[in-house]
Design a protein that fits this description.
- The complex is a heterodimer of chains A (237) and B (398).
- Chain A folds into 2 domains: 122 residues, Rossmann fold, CATH 3.40.50; 96 residues, Orthogonal Bundle (Arc Repressor Mutant, subunit A), CATH 1.10.10.10.
- Chain A contains 8 helices and 12 strands.
- In chain A, strands 2-1-3-4-5 form a 5-stranded parallel β-sheet, sandwiched between helices. In chain A, strands 6-7-8-9 form a 4-stranded antiparallel β-sheet, covered by helices on one side.
- In chain A, helix 2 runs parallel beside helix 3 and helix 6 crosses helix 8.
- The longest helix of chain A is centred in the middle third of the chain and has 20 residues.
- In chain B, helix 8 runs antiparallel to helix 9 and helix 8 packs antiparallel against helix 13.
- The chains are: A alpha/beta (237), B alpha+beta (398).
- At the A-B interface, helix 7 and helix 8 of A face helix 1, helix 9, strand 1, helix 10 and helix 11 of B.
């Protein structure tokens, strides 16, 4: 059981912390808890957890500040938990370097599913040779040098923008990328009309990726937030 | 950062003046690229647009032609002056900027002088008496123009306040029903939990499992109620600051399906193809909420095993979205009460007893805030809920 991932749970509300830790315990995860930002940053550096579950509404520090501090020295996956229904704080957290988010009230299954996604990303990060020339995800492969993408044996006919989008998502697999981040990377601008274009290109890219097997989800849409590429070996989320 | 600027209600309230533009954007008119609403917008709007100037010139030309006709027929100058003032009035009504009325007034006096006062076809005049005529004509047309503008402003404000009243009444309706909708499940949750805390050992496994299921079910119901409440707070700032963005309709449907009732396994949900590349302007959160309510309604009001279809298509400059089921449909007596707050129909399937009717009146307010329309019809068999949204035209950035 000792090679199970170590999760750092940062949540100031005791009842929700209990809920999370009980769930983690019943699913054989190892965990640490912190109820404020200072302790969280300290534990993150001293105990080196595999994943951080971070509530954004902490008593002492802004959750985003915690993300920035951890990101200054570590790439470990951060999953933020937000109680607010507005998307701004989630977007801010994602842009600050968080990988994923959960909105309260979330279900236990949802949390476990997100953790599994993160674990797969971790496994990938550890196994991947530093600068791979070919990206693989299920049937999808991207040959970066030749600037070509394949689904199984078949080459995907992608427009230049679609190819750029695919590479951006693939390079950040498992991580939710915000609209602003993507439009900035692709068009260098984050305006209203780029956003509409992005929707169309994502739809056509997805259609091409999922044409062979519509049940396979490579790209997940997060309404009001952004997109993410999922690892498709096992089930999606 | 685009996201912040558009979504932040604090920022949006500032551009309250441009409600007309929001409405224009809502009806699918073209929106200037990227950098829209800035703080200077209120000032810029005083400068007439090209469209305004076009109207002004066209009307002046028309009025002058009528004047020339009158002059030829030998009508008095008073008639011609009246026609000019009428022209100013129409210009003020048609043009968006108040400046158009002023320009039209000044031009009218000059044109009248040029075409109709001896010596004709010159800006000179022999009789000083005409200077008084010009002054009065200018004053009359300026007053007319100002009055017309004020009238327009009042009309706009009353349309806005009518909408606010509607939202407010939806809100009040919701708040009134909240005590009912929150208290019932809270009673069950806290009572059941207390029983478990103090008497857990006296209960047999089966009873405990039933209590757990009840708590979980009631809590999920509470989540839905809270989501609806949040929608109302978002709606309150509408239409001025509703963050309308181009969204892919299929994404919104997919998102809604992730939030529908936990009882959906007992029903077959089918998303009809065709809506893949449809873009509509909307506040995605609110429209997801509309779909969730409509689909949950369909689930709650049909027997186990019923089929619920969700489809979307383009209809002129609108996008229509439809949720239909093959359940018992809507008897005429039910239809009349559909949007009332506590109405739950008479012969409900399933065990839920909640006032889902409340969700429907909220749905209608949300759709109307988008400039769309929500209709419920008897599909014979089944119930058909359809709503429309402004479609979005996209210029692709390659």
């Amino acid at each position: 059981m000792n090679n199970r991932p170590l999760i750092l749970v940062v949540e100031d509300d005791a009842a929700v912390r209990n809920l999370i830790t009980t769930t983690l315990r019943t699913h054989d995860y190892r965990f640490l808890t912190a109820s404020d930002g200072e302790t969280a940053v300290m534990l993150a550096s001293s105990r080196r957890p595999d994943v951080v579950l971070l509530d954004l509404g902490l008593p002492d520090t802004e959750g985003v500040e915690v993300i920035r501090r951890i990101r200054s020295w570590s790439n470990l996956p951060i999953l933020v938990i937000s109680a607010r229904s507005e998307d701004d704080d989630k977007i801010e957290a994602l842009d600050a370097g968080a990988d994923d988010y959960l909105t309260k009230p979330f279900s236990v299954e949802e949390m476990l599913a997100r953790l599994r996604v993160t674990e797969r990303r971790l496994a990938l990060m550890q196994n991947q040779e530093a600068e791979s020339a070919v990206f693989r995800n299920g049937d999808l492969s991207i040959d970066y040098a030749a600037r070509r993408a394949f689904l199984g044996e078949n080459e995907l006919r992608l427009t230049p923008i679609e190819y750029k989008l695919l590479c951006l998502l693939a390079g950040n697999i498992g991580k939710v990328l915000t609209h602003t981040f993507i439009t900035q990377k692709i068009w260098g601008a984050g305006g209203e009309s780029e956003l509409a274009s992005l929707r169309v290109f994502m739809a056509t890219l997805r259609r091409k990726l999922e044409a062979a097997d519509p049940t396979v989800r490579f790209i997940q849409t997060h309404i009001g937030i952004g997109y993410r590429m999922l690892r498709v070996e096992q089930e999606g989320v | 950062m685009l996201k912040k600027r558009d979504d932040d209600p604090k920022n949006s309230v500032r551009v309250q003046k441009s409600a007309a533009e929001t409405a224009a954007a809502g009806s699918g008119a073209s929106v200037p690229e990227g950098h829209t609403a800035g703080p200077g917008k209120g000032l810029i709007r005083f400068v007439p647009s090209w469209m305004d100037l076009l109207w002004t010139v066209a009307l002046l030309a028309a009025v002058t032609l009528i004047g020339l006709l009158f002059a030829r027929l030998g009508f008095s100058e008073a008639n011609i002056i009246t026609v000019y003032i009428l022209g100013v009035l129409i210009t003020s009504i048609l043009a968006e900027s108040p400046a158009a009325g002023v320009i039209s007034s000044l031009a009218s006096v000059l044109l009248f002088n040029y075409f109709f006062i001896e010596p004709r076809f010159s800006f000179h005049t022999y009789e000083t008496e005409y200077l008084v005529t010009f002054a009065i004509m200018l004053a009359a047309s300026l007053t007319t123009g100002t009055l017309a503008n004020r009238l327009k402003e009042t009309a706009r404000q009353s349309a806005e306040s009518a909408f606010r009243t509607q939202v407010l009444s939806a809100k009040n309706q919701l708040l009134r029903s909240v005590s009912h909708d929150l208290r019932t499940p809270l009673t069950s949750i806290s009572g059941n939990a207390r029983t478990l805390v103090s008497h857990a050992d006296q209960l047999d496994g089966e009873t405990r499992r039933r209590i757990y299921a009840d708590i979980s079910g009631e809590a999920e119901w509470l989540i839905d109620v809270v989501e609806n409440l949040l929608s109302v707070t978002r709606l309150e700032n509408a239409p001025v600051s509703l963050p309308l963005k181009a969204e892919l309709v299929s994404d919104v449907i997919e998102e809604a399906l992730r939030h529908v009732s936990r009882h959906q396994d007992e029903h077959t949900l089918i998303v009809e193809p065709g809506g893949e590349l449809l873009l509509a302007r909307m506040d995605a959160k609110l429209i997801v909420q509309v779909l969730v309510n409509l689909i949950n309604n369909a689930i709650a009001y049909t027997q186990t095993g019923s089929v619920i279809r969700i489809g979307a298509w383009r209809e002129g400059d609108r996008v229509a979205v439809r949720v239909s089921d093959n359940g018992p449909g809507l008897p005429p007596d039910v239809r009349e009460h559909l949007f009332e707050m506590y109405y739950t129909g008479k012969n409900r399937a399933g065990d839920s007893r909640r006032s889902l009717g409340l969700g429907l009146s909220l749905c209608r307010s949300i759709v109307e805030a988008h400039g769309g329309e929500l209709t419920l019809e008897d599909g014979g068999p089944g119930c058909v809920a359809t709503f429309t949204l402004p479609a979005e035209e996209v210029t692709i950035h390659e």
